[in-house]
Amino acid sequence: MKIVPDYIEGKVLPTNKSDPASLLIDGHWCGHGEPIFHIFDVRVNNDEAYSFQLPESNENVSHPSVVMVMAESGYTFPIYDSRKHPASIYHPDNSISSKEHRLQPPYHCPECGKLKFKLAVGFEVPSDSVSENDTSWFALAAKCLGCNWHGIAYEDETA
User: 144: buried, middle or exposed (CB in 10 Å: 19+, 13-18, 0-12)?
Assistant: First the structure.
């Protein structure tokens, strides 16, 4: 079985374990404590700097979680989309069929306010997983290219 969710194939590489992926190596971000997880460095073509947008959070209205990434070349793509994961309530086969997602403005470094980052992603895999999209948790780690701040910028439970 492939380990990369199908919608991010060609947008990630196996991690080289440097920042920001180093924040994900220990698996402490895995919300269900599963022993299997996969970590990837975000890498499209020769781009190494990315900006990103996180899902809009609204306690009164529920929207699918989508994280959009913009490469320096201008290429924009989702690095995470809860609608693609079978255990998510937003997957087309499940109870909530909302297709609409909402995004926050581009993420700013909490230390220096810059918008360019190196990115890594992690996907926790449940023991009964049957496909590359069958994950239970997602994490996005970022390293600011302005001041070297690094942290886990976003997590989402997909199951």
Answer: buried
Q: Which two three-digit tokens encode residue 36?
A: 């299997």
DSSP 80-149: EEGGGSTTSTTSTTSS-------BPSPP--TTT----EEEEEEEEE-TT--STT--SEEEEEEEETTT--
- The type of residue at 1 is M
Domain boundaries, the chain: 6-157
Neighbours of 34 (CB within 10 A): 17
- For 17-53, what is the HEC assignment? CCCCHHHCCCCCCCCCCCCEEEEEEECECCECCEEEE
pLDDT in tens, 77-103: 999 999 999 988 888 787 665 668 889
Q: What is the pTM of this model?
A: 0.93
